[in-house]
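Response to reviewer comment R2.3. The reviewers asked that we include at least one raw input/output pair. We reproduce the pair for 3-oxoacyl-[acyl-carrier-protein] reductase FabG here without editing.
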Amino acid sequence: MTTALPVAPVAIVTGASRGIGAQIVRRLVQDGFAVAINYASRAADAEQLAAELQAAGGRAIAEHDDALFERTFAINVRGTFHMLREAARRLADGGRIVNLSTSALALKLPGYAIYNASKAAVEAMTPVFAKELRGRHITVNAVAPGPVATELFLTGKSEAQVQHFAKLPPLERLGEPEDIAGVIAFLAGPESGWINGQVIRANGGSA
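Raw output as returned:
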């Protein structure tokens, strides 16, 4: 039997940098919500409100309209596309390309919609690009790690949240960076030559 992960309710308040919107944010934080302060143009006011609430022990972040979406897609989708395009031009025949996706796609965790959408694009490009390099003996695969005990993953999570993720796989632990490095090293090596256009979910069986 698994125990539900204790999480605060989350609210996104639009037009929240001042006036009624700001007061709604204050009330929701007071009631225990983690609040995303959405705004159109008054960045300084939104950041000041977020700082005020965080100083009082609340949980609030200020996020510009579409900013997170644009930033995430710029890194994960456009960045991968540019890398693949340059690899096609510069990589010697017989080479290896390994993209990075995420097992969060399979876990379907709430709050990961933008991130998952960007990584879904990576998974879509991977097998297509493998076929576009036909005749050059270049393999194109992706690795989709599950939760891994890195500083990025652990920062901002409570011990209860970390333990929840550690219990997801039947191996009952978080992944380690070495676990993922080993999979990528295999895909980059000579013995993986018959694996092409695939997504390897390195997550200990959690998804």
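Strands lie at 10-13, 34-39, 59-64, 96-100, 139-145, 199-202. The radius of gyration is 21 Å. Further pairs are available on request from the corresponding author.
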